[in-house]
Amino acid sequence: MMALDxxxxxxxxxxxxxxxxxxxxxxxxxxxxxxxxKGCDHGQCGACxxxxxxxxxxxCLTLAVMHEGETVxxxxxxxxxxxxxxxxxxxxxxxxxxxxxxxxxxxxSAVAVLEEIEAGVPSHVTQDLDHVGWSDAEARERxxxxxxxxxxxxxxxxxxxxxxxxxxx
Length: 169
Fold this sequence. Notes:
Pfam families: Fer2 (PF00111), Fer2_2 (PF01799). The protein is α+β, with helices and mostly antiparallel strands. The chain folds into two domains: about 1-80, Beta-grasp domain (Ubiquitin-like (UB roll)); about 85-165, [2Fe-2S]-binding domain (DNA polymerase, domain 1, Orthogonal Bundle). It has six helices and five strands. A five-stranded mixed sheet has the order 2-1-5-3-4, sandwiched between helices. The longest helix has 17 residues, at about 105-120. The radius of gyration is 16 Å and the shape is globular. The model has no long low-confidence stretch (mean pLDDT about 95).
C-alpha cells in the first residue's frame, strides 16, 4: 500500500492504495465519486474523462499514485444541482445527452476543450496556428475521444457552442 495525497474537487484527500489502482478506481471505489463512469476500461470511449491539473485525461489509463499532490476535478466538482456549471446547464438546454452514461466524461472534456481553445492550444484541424479559435470542426476533433452510443453529437456541439458564446442557433 502507498500513501496518496491529492486535491479532488477542491478538497484534500488522503488515501492508502495499492500502487496498481487506477485513478478511475480510486475515485469510484475509494472516494465514492461515481459520476465518472467506467466504460471500456481501455481509454477508447472517454466515459472516464476527468480534469487533472487543467488537462483532460482518461482516468482508466493512469495510476492514482502518479497524481500525488495534483488537483483532480470530476463531474461532481464542476457544479451542484443547485448551482450548475455553465456546461452542465447547456447540456440540459440543448439536450446534449440521451441515456446519460457518457455525459460526465463528455462534460468534463467539453469544459477542458473550451479552456484549450481559449489558451490557444492547436488541434489537428487548426487552420491558423497563430489564431486558435472556435469552430464546430475544432470542437468535433477535440471531442473525438468521447464516444456517445446514442449519437447526441450535434446537441453536444450546440451546448459547447452556447458556452463558448458562439451560439448561432
